[in-house]
Amino acid sequence: MPNLLGETSGLMAFVRTVEAGSFSAAARDLYTTPSAVSKSVARLEKKIGTRLFFRTTRALTLTQDGQLFFQRVAPLLRELDSSDDAIRSQAAPSGRLRISMPGELAPLLLPGLFDRFAAANPDLHLDIGLTDRFVDLIREDYDVVLRVGDPTGGDLIVRHLADLPMIVVASSPFLRSWGTAGSAEALTGVPFARFMSGGMVSPLRLADGRTFIPSGRVNCDSGRALIYAARSGLGAAYLLRCLVARELNDGVLLDLAPEIALPKLPFNALHAFGRTVPLRVKLFCDFMAAEAKVIAAF
């Protein structure tokens, strides 16, 4: 067996690639490029004289030698990581933290982020993008992305923060005209201000898994616009409850379907750091988990 003491970068690249599932995800974890990770693994393969991965345009899988090598090497590198973590945990987080979060939730999340998280971590530089589209975390160079709904992207690490309840709301005059919906069948006959994404009307989902496309003459690609439409009596609106908590408390909007079970949508933090999560990302996710539980209770 050749001496591998000088191949630390190749060993790290190999183990991170196995754990993260791709050169791209490993590169983000190691703060380098996919090309650099691929070349490090190739040099390691040349050094030990065997192929560790089967490479195709669509997949990266371990060879039998690669599996054996990973089983021997990975525990050693994890020990090194644990030692490093013990030292780094004593230090304050620093550097840039690039975040993407839904624009609809920003008014609920940003005050705490600025008032408490930023104040408690003065060496962090926050770079925040507000958008409701599904960003490409790696291509757009985000550290962590907050999203509502089932996660997409098989290479990403998903941390579940909370489940956010949905609600169907309408104005008081609208309820006087249409009444409350006591059944799913009754709900299908109610006109809605509808959420539109990618040219398609989003379905209304029930807790039992049934869905239907609501009827209506107002389509919007913004939850805030749906709230205004519902307040104006142009239709009911199917929204995250936390987005209309103030309107519900003030009596501006009312629950149109209090007896119909609606789903809760998962609110997740996604990143691509594999097993070694930077302290700045871990602390941010911990903070957001606490904030998410608060807005889930609205």
TrEMBL record:
One of its GO terms (molecular function) is DNA binding. It comes from the Bacteria. PROSITE patterns: HTH_LYSR. SUPFAM superfamilies: Periplasmic binding protein-like II (SSF53850), Winged helix' DNA-binding domain (SSF46785). Pfam families: HTH_1 (PF00126), LysR_substrate (PF03466). Residues 11-63 form the HTH lysR-type domain. InterPro entries: LysR-type_TF_proteobact-type, LysR_HTH_N, LysR_subst-bd, WH-like_DNA-bd_sf, WH_DNA-bd_sf. Coiled coil: none annotated. CDD domains: PBP2_CrgA_like. Keywords: DNA-binding, Transcription, Transcription regulation. Transcriptional regulator of the ttuABCDE tartrate utilization operon. Belongs to the LysR transcriptional regulatory family. This is HTH-type transcriptional regulator TtuA. It comes from Rhizobium sophoriradicis.
